[in-house]
Amino acid sequence: MTDTRGPQPPYEMFGGEQPAPQQAGQPYHPPQAYPSPPGGGGTHGGQQAGTAVRRPRTGARTSPRTRKARLRVAKADPWSVMKVSFLLSIALGICTVIASAVLWMVMDAMGVFSTVGGTISEATGSNESNGFDLQSFLSLPRVLIFTSVIAVIDVVLATALATLGAFIYNLSAGFVGGVELTLAEDE
């Protein structure tokens, strides 16, 4: 394979140093990250191959240092916000249905519906069969259907509002730069 780029200028290294030209027939030795101690016998040019040791600074702190970084939330992806808010609102809807069923069972076991129904019948004076029956009106299937409808509406509204909030955040972050966070690393 031949180099068709023509003559190239020599590479410049940090500090203006030039790399040592490689003689033909000799193996390549990469530069050492840490210089070896002076006067040490070595295999190539006074350097010991692979034995360079980093020496600690004098007065260096021995306590662990906590690193901190200031970051800015410049944009919230509306698609990911919509997916997360949809899953969280479904979980909240399931919790709402289960909590209402448990609450209904506890109130029924305590006799709240029969007591309140008796009080309503006495207050309205309708002790006969054509009066208002609270226990049949607030039956468990009716309560669960009502709660499920509220949970579905909550899922739709929460998802839509969170996605709209992400769009509004992106617009306002364009003007003011977004929310700044300071993150720290525990050691």
Question: Can you describe this structure?
Answer:
The chain has a two-stranded antiparallel sheet with strand order 1-2. By secondary structure, the chain is mainly α. The chain is elongated. 47% of the residues lie in helices and 6% in strands. The chain has 4 helices and 2 strands.
Helix content: 40-55%
Structural class: mainly alpha
Biggest sheet details: 2 strands, antiparallel
Overall mean pLDDT stands at: 79
Question: How much beta, percentage-wise?
Answer: 5-15%
Low-confidence stretches: none
Spatial separation of the terminal alpha carbons: 51 Å
Query: Based on DSSP secondary structure assignment, what is the total number of beta strands?
Result: 2
**Per the principal axes of the C-alpha atoms, what is the gross shape?**
elongated
How are the strands ordered across the major sheet? 1-2
The gyration radius over C-alpha positions equals 38 Å
Order of helices and strands: EHHHHE
Total DSSP helices: 4
Task: Give the SSE layout.
Layout: E1 68-73, H1 78-110, H2 112-124, H3 134-137, H4 140-176, E2 179-184
Antiparallel strand pairs: 1-2
Helix pairs in contact: 1-4
Sum this structure up briefly.
The protein has helices at residues 78-110, 112-124, 134-137, 140-176, and strands at 68-73, 179-184.
